[in-house]
Amino acid sequence: YDEDAKNFNEKEEEMFSEFYSDNGLEGITIKEYGNWVKKCFDEAKIIFNVPIYFMILDEDEVLNLVTGKWEDQMEIEL
User: Fold this and answer.
1) What is the DSSP letter of 49?
2) Which tens digit of pLDDT belongs to each residue from 46-66?
């Protein structure tokens, strides 16, 4: 996106932003980032008995890299 956005005019930028927000792409993008981080974590063959989390600031859910499950960060005991 950043590379292509350099060539966007104002109308194209607005159209992209509307499409992004109207289709919930922020949440989808966060989940994809999380899946990629989990894949890297698994490939590193790191073994922990305690949870390790991936999160994006200001989001409600965090990815537990040990279990691979998204969890409500308000329910996690640190």
Assistant:
1) S
2) 888 888 999 998 888 999 999
